[in-house]
Amino acid sequence: MISGSEIANAFLLVYAGLFPIVNPIGGAAIFLGLTRHCNEQERNALVLGVTINSFFLLLGSLLMGSYVLEFFGITLPIVRIAGGIIVSATGWSLLQASDDFTDDRTGHEPKVPTDAFYPLTMPITVGPGSIAVAITIGSQRPRELPMTELAILSGAVLAGVIAIAATIYICYRFAEGTVRALGESGTNVLVRLSAFILFCIGIEIIWSGYSAIAHIAS
Q: Where are the domains positioned within the chain?
């Protein structure tokens, strides 16, 4: 029979493993930068959409990710390289944006994001690193347990994903308060810094994938 500590370990493995790479606190600043011109109702709708999308994307990666990659013959290093390019491009575009996030050539505000999936969910919130970690955790699940014990462990894993999604919602939903506290200049600094970190994370993900391929090739 599965002990309480094993259930707690399964929950913590998912939450503690995903939280640093998902980084909802840092992602909230990028979210603010991309939704600067949204009104409160639009932003709240996007927050809910991002939360739901993130939940299903992480859960799907945990449960089915390894099977999907195996079916298409795709390796995790390739996922890291492709996703790292997307993350880097997103960070670079934010770094190049003007301070008021307007288009200098037209003087008009950029189009308000209406799609909660791209790029707000992927790659901003759940990027290739998060997906790779989720797939790795999912691939380590025991396969020879009785159905009852497997269901209990699956419940703990599900609780971990729900906890991550709830953290994303809280950080994004109340991110606007950060804007008021920091002011316009402080928010611009935070967004620029977060964009630079996002760009660096993308380069790191690309390097990680390349290193893995180089190691296999050698």
A: 27-217
